[in-house]
Write a structure and sequence with these properties.
Elements: H1 2-10, H2 12-34, H3 40-53, H4 56-68, H5 82-108, H6 114-124, H7 126-133, H8 140-146, H9 156-181, H10 192-209, H11 212-229, H12 232-246, H13 248-254, H14 257-281, H15 287-298, H16 310-326, H17 342-349
Length: 358
């Protein structure tokens, strides 16, 4: 066990990717295999396996952080108080439970009793509650890792960019389609009910299926360490490969081969770059890409009235290219950048070496 802990401490990135894949695939593959079984207990198991599986990236980040820097606390009593951790846990638990209940009630369309939905979401809501409470952990390395979920850095502008980029691209894509082709683009029908569904989808993604669970791992843990070794452009492209492959078990069941080519191989590299760009612009704040991810996925419920268009995809790629050029993402980040894990890398690989810079 000591040898394994030592290896994890010396190989942060490799350990993270191995654990992220292991946790997710060990849960998602059985869930996919069992989802056609109509037995109630089996469907409950599928529900929980799905919830745990998508939390693989952040759970991997937490495990590697603890193994790499297993300190037991600091003199900073205010920031690591037990009261703050429990308040964060219970507040997040209640909010996530309510969101999970509303989302499952809508998805089930009355087929599952409300009492059953309420009970199912009690343990499920503990996952986001646990992650958010780690932002107040007595273990300083863990607290520092996840602190930007509750104490975000950077200007408000970049959080607005994270929230509004994908809605703007979808709307502009539909408008351009209509202007260029003259065909009727479906930009109508987005009423208050649809907006409410999109908000619920946004909150569900943020807590359960792509927000804090994924971004705390991919961007919060892996990206800064990759950017300590490579330029942001190369680091994000490496992360794109692992991020895309991580989705494979569910993708093979849920989506067509054409979708894989267009989304994972053509669009996802630029989405990855944009997520990384906002992460860097907010000085390494996990909250920004978590909001970006939730905003992107929340548009799924509007797809029939606000469809994906070729023009929208072209706008997304253009925006990604502009981000690369404007930030000169082919150059290494400065050694003092909070978005690059130079300090961790130096301590692990060579304590006496100077961090790389431009």
């Amino acid at each position: 066990m000591n040898r394994l802990t030592k290896w994890v401490g010396q190989h942060h990135l490799a350990a993270f990717f191995v654990l992220a894949y292991a946790i997710t695939w060990a849960a998602i593959i059985p869930a996919v295999a069992l989802r056609s079984d109509d037995r109630e207990l089996v469907q409950v198991l599928v529900f929980y396996l799905g919830r745990i599986g998508v939390y693989g990236p952040v759970l991997a980040g937490i495990l590697v952080t603890r193994a790499a820097a297993p300190d037991r606390g600091t003199p900073d009593r205010k920031r690591s108080s037990r009261a703050a951790r429990w308040i964060a846990f219970f507040a997040t638990w209640v909010v996530a439970w309510a969101i999970g209940c509303l989302y499952l009630h809508r998805a089930a369309s009355g087929e599952i009793p409300s009492t059953v939905i309420a009970v199912l979401n009690v343990p499920a809501a503990m996952l986001p509650a646990f992650v958010l409470s780690c932002s107040f952990s007595k273990v300083s390395s863990l607290r520092n890792y996840l602190s930007t979920l509750v104490r975000p850095r950077g200007a408000l502008l970049w959080y607005l960019v994270a929230l509004l980029t994908f809605p703007a691209i979808h709307v502009l894509g539909n408008v351009l389609t209509r202007l260029v082709t003259g065909s009727p683009a479906q930009v109508g029908g987005v009423g208050i009910d649809r907006i409410g569904l999109a908000v619920l989808e946004f909150l569900s993604v943020f807590f359960f299926s792509g927000g804090i669970n994924e971004e705390s791992g991919w961007r919060g843990f892996a990206l800064p360490k990759l950017q300590a070794l490579h330029s942001p452009l190369i680091a994000n492209l490496i992360l794109w490969f692992f991020w895309a492959a991580w989705h494979l078990p569910l993708d093979l069941v849920e989506y067509s081969r054409e979708w894989h080519v267009i989304n994972r191989l053509v669009l996802l590299p630029f989405i990855t770059i944009l997520f990384g760009w906002v992460y860097n612009r907010t000085q390494g704040s996990i909250l920004a890409p978590a909001l970006f991810h939730a905003s992107m996925n929340s548009l799924n419920v509007l797809i029939d009235v606000l469809p994906v268009t070729t023009a929208g995809s072209a706008l997304l790629i253009t925006f990604g290219l502009l981000a690369i050029v404007s930030d000169r993402m082919w150059e290494r980040l400065p050694a003092a950048s909070l978005a690059a894990g130079y300090q961790v890398t130096r301590q692990t690989q060579n304590p006496d070496s100077a961090g790389p810079g431009r």
